[in-house]
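User: Predict the complex with iron/sulfur cluster.
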Amino acid sequence: MTISLIENPQDFIRVTDIKEYTFCPRIYYYEACLPGLHHHTVKTLAGQEAHERERALANRRTLAAFGLTEGESYFDVPVHSEAYQVIGEIDQVIICLDEAIPVDFKNTTRLGYQFKLQLTAYGLLLAESQRQTVRRGFFYLIPEHRAEELIFTAKLQRSAAKALETMREIVIAERVPPPTRYQDRCLTCKYRRFCNDV
Ligand code: SF4
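Assistant: Here is the predicted structure with iron/sulfur cluster placed in the model:
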């Protein structure tokens, strides 16, 4: 498969940040435009450890876990998009004869919309770098040891592309986005003291 390398990764936004953007665009602004505010929580560090353990196990998992009979697996695959100016690293990519499939390991059993947008965005980047059909992806749910398919519908692809474009605009303009419409999210937000209008 083609490995995606770029010279100046600092000039690109990161696919993984689409989760924060989806939760609240302003959280993305704080973390992307005000360096030093972001910090790792105990929860995120525990998630990273589970992720690393899963990565070791994934080498031994057969493609039957994804309902596939053929294909070749690659792990921690860097991808980028010149079109969206975005970089990412996909946990596992399965290259089949007629399609490429991104796999995202998740240390959860609840697949929120933000995770679906993230996996769809990986699909967009993979399609651009591999020049191969990418029509679906899989989550691998670590707690349940099972894969769950996500079809990249036209609507999901449009939403992921729109999110990446808007994230890019926020960074370029350093523009503070409006607060989330779901203000119950503000109650436990670590950036609440920066938002005087919620
Ligand atoms: S307090 Fe609310 S509006 Fe402000 S960053 Fe947090 S979630 Fe967004």
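Helices lie at 18-23, 25-33, 42-58, 113-130, 154-173.
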